[in-house]
Design brief:
Length: 158
């Protein structure tokens, strides 16, 4: 069986405007458009917040990548500095070594064949060699005059 249909009681008085509710007293179309506007505003705010967060994320990632490249450059510069510092230390030690007059004299004797005044050069020959060692005129004069005389002759002539 079918139940009888209830009659709906209209909230609008007869002859009332169809778009005004009697309970609230606000237009239905204005309320729904206001709800749509607030929903649209909320969605816009959410999207803008998301876009700002993405922009901040990408900028921080780009900055981190840039910082890592800078750190690599700093590390390579520090390595180069350390190599140059080691080379500098070696050269300073070598310069201090050659400041010693005994070292200079030793190097001059060994590499350049210089002798002191009054000394005679000795040349060792093997027993199989029958030729006499050749002593140049320059070495004879050096033995007689001294090394300072050689320098005088080299710069100012005889």
């Amino acid at each position: 069986m079918q139940q009888p249909r209830r009659t709906q009681i209209s909230s609008r008085p007869s002859g009332g405007l169809p778009y005004v509710t009697s309970a609230v007293g606000i237009e239905e179309t204005v309320g729904s458009s206001r709800a749509r506007r607030s929903s649209l505003f909320a969605q816009t705010i959410i999207w803008m917040t998301g876009l700002i967060c993405l922009a901040l994320l990408f900028s921080s990632l780009a900055q981190a990548w840039s910082n890592s490249a800078l750190m690599q450059r700093v590390q390579s510069a520090q390595q180069q500095y350390q190599q140059l510092q080691d080379k500098h230390d070696t050269l300073v030690k070598l310069a201090n070594y050659y400041k010693d007059p005994y070292v200079v004299e030793s190097e001059a004797r060994q590499q350049l064949g210089y002798i002191r005044p009054g000394e005679y050069p000795v040349i060792f020959t093997s027993a199989t060699t029958k030729t006499q060692p050749v002593v140049s005129d320059h070495q004879k004069r050096a033995a007689q005059q001294g090394y300072w005389q050689e320098w005088w002759d080299a710069f100012f002539g005889n």
